[in-house]
């Protein structure tokens, strides 16, 4: 798209996923890396015009203040990133660092004010860099899911509470989503299982704001594998009886998920696709354990037991092992490119076809990876045509 | 299809796959088993009229003469089949046994005569039971692949050689295929990696004979898994560098494949889909070991190494463990039902959409399981419509 | 030992382990099975005189009243036992069933009375069958561990509470242990992780009663493997950093352990050896999941991460899959034979060398399987010598 | 041992194992690494006086001439060694490089002359550095095993052939072994499965020369695991029926073993312990595949099938993954230290207790790892006592 540069605004910009994505964008922009791991770099997308890597500009929010270069070096020391690459893109990391804005964990004043502050940061970033648009991606730490409350079901009541300086009604992920979608009219992707826009009172927010949104909770490792494998059993008429999973990981995400509150939203999100594809009777115990010595290398073991013809038993075990953030980062870049296209083509509201990237797809019940892949490609082609037919935004 | 009963003629009728299928057909016919493991019993096929299980009649050829009941009891003792089921269907096995005809390993006279004898057996079976049609399925032991020869490329020369009582130009699988397709005008499926119709001089045989055929080499375990998983890596832009496999099995197939000649055709067939889906550069060592103590329970371990974003390494291990013949038998029944439909709808020649069932699909280069599944369903719907529009065959 | 028959009294006599052991004893006695899986049938024990299989007589307690034959048939249906064997020994199962005595879950009167009733059952069994001795083995369902209380540390206070008809101070496992050791002067083995004799006030009970005891919690699958593998890492100077485990099982034990209270004692017991062998710093998350569709076939996955020379990383994964009760039953028979020998040789108190059979060995801190095996053999030889030197008991 | 410095002479000094060991010795000497992975650094050896790491001096032979630093940097790039460590010890690598002497693949003159040249290099190294002794360790590429020949059984005939300038009777590994043992009276360890001293005519060479020797073929990964696990099955009376193995590796060793000739000696050596521990009936298919993209990270999958009580089936799968040379290097250092002790204590000939380190132990039939570990410790204690009693060598 020859219409100028596109901003990428990370919520959780100093985290493992965001840092990896930032290093990756820099490396791709400088031709130091090939776009391996990106869906949008595949042959099916060749005719779809998307923002070039060199046209992406990174900014973002974080509650932490570790410099991006330092964060990247730590990831390199842990084996996540090649050291030589981090050093080669250090100047770009330094530049991106300057575009990051701090968040406070317990902001003062009303939550409405906090939303407005966050939105202003995004708008300032867009203006300062003269960007065509800014895509906001939430890659902050997974939050505990809050209990339901009346304000979640009543927009007016919610607005009252948001304006009340003493009330704390929304979690941070929702504040950021509101800042992006309503406050800055920015396309938005939720890569985490946090609450974000998942409350009834905000169901129409994105459509009303005229921006495309996509979510939620990136589908990268074990869950990806499950939504690839489960349809095989179904197509072949085998009855999956149980699908057990054990996840071992260290790193930042490991530490966060060691908290039994935070892990709950993740577990629900991880098992959603399985039950959707195989039915609710499947016994599906699932564990995530924090194993600090494994660092960012995540290992997942799954054990599937299915019943086949004439009472036969089929067992399948899978062990998947990968650095999680290098799986997530290219998806984040894909999302930025595709939401940018969607926005340019005038699409608003949740984009079901981006469900391909998520454990818990907004606007869609399709979890089968192969079908999602087909839907994504055909959506991208349709949208590119629509966009090229449309006057430049 | 309300047009009478359908014959199932197994080449290798006393083997593990055929015996399991015969027990299965009997159990389904008597309502003693549910159609678990059958693709054609799935919801997508609900509106497609296919031969009912009680309308299938089993016959076949084998070089061995162990009674079917005995063979079934041995499979039950080895854990492949439930004993109570075998006992419950023993009368039907006895009946099927009476419809089996012997083959000699080294038949006398010309190969043309042998083809004619085999065809006559099939025609007699059809007549004796008043069957609408007979579908022939080759589930005999895997043969060594013969070396190429001029007659394979020249139909006239081939016919001369076949008529020569002293010449032995075709392997048994091709004799049976000719008997079915040309000699008995019977729809035919090749479930093995043997030569069968895979010679240039016979490329048009099925179309010319007006019968549908499908092949080859049933896709049941490790290979099924590979063609489900490989497209995931491709869609996500990851580069698979190596895909190693180790297969352990005992039983009849294990003993056959312990022969380095026989195993060659199997190995080629098994790796075809992988290279087609991932390119020829993938390092793909593959072993099949005869481990008699494992009996019919086959265990396959695969190790996949892929390269992802920013030089990251992804490894995936899978261990699949199942009784091979209970995976194969429902596919054989699916094939009989679908080839019966194809024949009734007037389809002739290789049916590419049946590639879903095979490691090395005839008439198609599509190996991605998910795409094959979509193509199969849509083909079945189209063919059922065509069939219902056509006058009864 | 030519001194007459030996009784085996199972607490939990209708459970999976006890039923399997009872079937096994019958099959061994009738020469229908070989002593595969028995340590005491190995060459190292050839010169050690132990009770013959045909000289073992089974009795026991259970709160359930399902007939033994029915229980055995259910196990056979689930794949645990060969059906033909169960049928072949049905008369012996019927006989054993007649020797079983019921327990009530909530017995009336004082706990002292209940102990006395249980002891009387054991003594009656000994007298009725004219047995040289009765070895009691606790294979009842795992109990939740009770909270500590003053009576556990003060024998006098304990006796007072036991005599009080309204007090309930001890769990059932301890009542049975007291019945065996103090009430019936019977050698006793605790195959479960329940409280049993594990309270300070009973530390000297066995020595004082003059009977040998052994415990606790049979070491059969994953834990066995761990105590075999951990010493390898230690010997080679590698530093194990984490050892994660996932256990999947159905059956009776699966259902019991689905209770978070009951599973706690099991988890503690399972990890004891690991920490003892590798130190307390090893990160060792461990899960047991109830997966009913897997029945009695237990599958355990372990992931070990160790640090080696020059910061190298070593990972080892193991997947162990077996029918748990067929692993446990031969150990139970070994224990009966060896405790019988110990008793005949006049040994009293916990026998540390029987730690070989347990996750949490009484009287010993040795968890290394290889060392335990050496200690066991040498103890058996010493005890057999001592016994042959002693006058017949 | 306070008697001066000890030389380490590597045959194959520029290979992966030797380079890793050389980096490791340097790092240990400078206190940059802890002795993780060394058996001799364990508490059992605390009272045994062994050469200190700073007292080891490295030299050696190789047919290749890549500088050691470059070789080490390549290993670091492949993930085998930490880059910072390689850089930190670069000066020491440079020093060691200067002590390396070239070998030619096809040396001119008689083989006797070649032996003498190699011996002279070792002696010169000892003199130049004023070393108490030099321990020679063969870590060269695995050779194809030569066919048997009369000279292997007749020392006189062998000597005649060695003196004949046109005869080529011994492989390089045997030439190096003769150079070390007979030519330089140096203690010698054979870490490879090559022929080395394994010919009848040289059976007494080491004893006659008065030097201790140890071999053969380092036991580091899959084989180590097997000799740890197999004794468990035996002790518990389970009958192992099959033990299948698949090994995937790249790197130098992977390339060498891709040669079907070279791999044969390795396969024989790998399976020796298994058959010795479990009997010859165990079905044990074993494969080693060269998978270049895996580099030096070796992955081995084993599948064990055992029969237990009452016809139960037990399966165990293990996946071991590690950088092979970092497993081997500490063993090489252990061997140098222990052979140095043996030599100082006046021990000559094959040392059976060093079988702990080898797949195919010289002078011993013991393959059980636990027993070997016990024997090693007790031998080291005995030898240290003997040494301290002896006058300084
Ligand atoms: N494969 C994957 O890595 C993957 C897949 C799916 C989802 N996710 C999700 O992505 C998120 C990021 O994962 P990660 O590995 O980068 O975690 P991380 O812990 O490394 O990074 C999270 C970052 O968010 C920051 N943060 C915390 N609270 C914040 C707030 N209220 N506002 C702004 N920033 C905040 C933290 O300071 C940190 O820098 C997690 O929620 C994770 O569940 C990751
Ligand atoms: N999952 C699966 O089981 C699976 C998958 C793909 C392909 N296959 C193929 O199916 C075939 C059958 O497998 P199986 O396990 O039943 O093997 P099997 O050895 O149990 O049975 C083969 C039968 O073929 C008979 N036979 C041998 N030569 C014959 C000939 N010339 N004519 C007629 N019969 C002959 C044998 O006597 C035997 O009864 C094999 O070729 C196998 O490779 C099986
Ligand atoms: N490999 C193994 O199977 C293994 C290994 C170690 C320990 N164990 C332990 O052995 C025990 C038995 O295992 P299982 O698989 O046979 O379980 P199970 O559930 O099949 O059998 C337990 C039996 O105990 C009976 N019972 C319950 N409460 C009782 C009481 N108070 N008094 C007498 N009987 C009582 C039940 O009715 C049942 O018949 C469990 O505690 C288990 O943890 C088993
Ligand atoms: N875990 C392990 O790494 C392990 C375990 C057991 C045995 N081994 C054995 O150790 C040996 C070395 O393994 P590696 O990974 O270092 O292999 P490598 O290929 O990296 O190194 C072998 C070295 O030997 C040199 N060489 C070849 N022929 C020679 C000759 N005739 N004389 C002197 N040098 C020669 C080569 O140039 C090379 O530098 C192999 O035989 C291997 O089988 C290794
Ligand atoms: Na959805
Ligand atoms: Na030996």
Helix content of chain A: 40-55%
Bound molecules: nicotinamide-adenine-dinucleotide, sodium ion
Q: Which two chains form the greatest contact, residue counts included?
A: A-B, 54 and 54 residues
Helix-strand pattern of chain A = EHEHHHEHEHHEHEHEHHEEEHEH
Strand order of the largest sheet of chain A: 3-2-1-4-5-6-11
Oligomer: homotetramer
Protein name (chains A, B, C, D): Inositol-3-phosphate synthase
Family (chains A, B, C, D): Belongs to the myo-inositol 1-phosphate synthase family.
Domain Myo-inositol-1-phosphate synthase GAPDH-like (chains A, B, C, D): 221-325
Pfam family, one (chains A, B, C, D): Inos-1-P_synth
Provide a short characterization of the protein structure.
Chains A, B, C, D: This is Inositol-3-phosphate synthase. The structure is a homotetramer of 393-residue chains. By secondary structure, chain A is an alpha/beta fold.
Overview of the molecule:
- The structure is a homotetramer of 393-residue chains.
- Chain A is an alpha/beta fold.
- Chain A has two domains: 6-218 and 326-389, NAD(P)-binding Rossmann-like Domain (Rossmann fold); 222-322, 2-Layer Sandwich (Dihydrodipicolinate Reductase, domain 2), CATH 3.30.360.10.
- Chain A is built from 13 helices and eleven strands.
- In chain A, helix 1 links the parallel strand 1 and strand 2 (56-62).
- In chain A, helix 9 (222-235) packs parallel to helix 11 (260-278).
- Chain A is globular.
- The mean pLDDT of chain A is 94.
- Chains A and B meet through helix 1, helix 9, strand 10, helix 12 and helix 13 of A and helix 1, helix 9, strand 10, helix 12 and helix 13 of B.
- Strand 10 (313-323) of chain C pairs antiparallel with strand 10 (313-323) of chain D.
- The structure holds nicotinamide-adenine-dinucleotide (4 copies) and sodium ion (2 copies).
- Residues 361, 364-365 of chain A line the site of one sodium ion.
- Residues 11-12, 14-17, 61-64, 103, 139-142, 172, 191-192, 217-218, 220, 252-253, 256, 324-325, 327-328 of chain B line the site of one nicotinamide-adenine-dinucleotide.
- Chains A, B, C, D: Residues 221-325 form the Myo-inositol-1-phosphate synthase GAPDH-like domain.
């Amino acid at each position: 798209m020859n219409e100028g540069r596109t901003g990428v605004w990370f919520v959780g910009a100093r985290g493992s996923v965001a840092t990896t994505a930032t290093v990756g964008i820099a490396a791709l922009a400088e031709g130091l890396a090939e776009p391996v791991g990106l869906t949008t770099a595949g042959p099916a997308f060749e005719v779809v015009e998307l923002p070039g890597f060199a046209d992406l500009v990174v900014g973002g929010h974080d509650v932490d203040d570790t410099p991006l270069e330092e964060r990247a070096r730590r990831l390199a020391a842990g084996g996540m990133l090649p050291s030589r690459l981090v050093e080669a893109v250090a100047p770009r990391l330094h530049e991106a660092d300057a575009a990051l804005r701090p968040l406070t964990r317990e902001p003062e004043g009303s939550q409405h004010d906090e939303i407005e502050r966050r939105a202003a940061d995004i708008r300032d970033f867009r203006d300062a860099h003269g960007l065509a648009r800014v895509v906001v991606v939430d890659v902050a730490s997974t939050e505990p899911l809050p209990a339901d409350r009346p304000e979640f079901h009543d927009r007016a009541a919610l607005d009252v509470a948001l304006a009340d300086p003493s009330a704390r009604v929304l979690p941070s992920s929702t504040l950021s989503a509101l800042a992006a979608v309503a406050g800055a009219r920015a396309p938005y992707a939720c890569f985490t299982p946090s609450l974000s826009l998942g409350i009834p009172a905000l169901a129409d927010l994105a459509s009303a704001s005229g921006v495309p949104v996509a979510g939620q909770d990136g589908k990268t490792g074990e869950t990806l594998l499950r939504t690839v494998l489960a349809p095989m059993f179904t197509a072949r008429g085998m009855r999956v009886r149980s699908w057990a999973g054990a996840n071992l990981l260290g790193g930042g995400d490991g530490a966060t998920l060691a908290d039994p509150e935070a892990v709950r939203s993740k577990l629900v999100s991880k098992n959603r696709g399985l039950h959707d594809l195989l039915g609710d009777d499947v016994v599906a115990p699932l564990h995530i354990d924090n194993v600090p010595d494994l660092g960012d290398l995540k290992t997942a073991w799954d054990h599937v037991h299915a019943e086949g013809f004439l009472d036969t038993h089929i067992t399948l075990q899978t062990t998947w092992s990968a650095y999680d953030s290098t799986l997530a980062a290219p998806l984040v870049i894909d999302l930025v490119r595709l939401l940018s296209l969607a926005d340019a083509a005038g699409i608003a509201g949740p984009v079901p076809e981006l469900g391909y990237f998520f454990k818990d797809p907004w606007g869609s019940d399709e979890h089968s990876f192969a079908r999602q892949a087909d839907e994504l490609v055909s959506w991208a082609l349709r949208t590119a045509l629509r966009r090229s037919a449309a006057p430049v935004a």
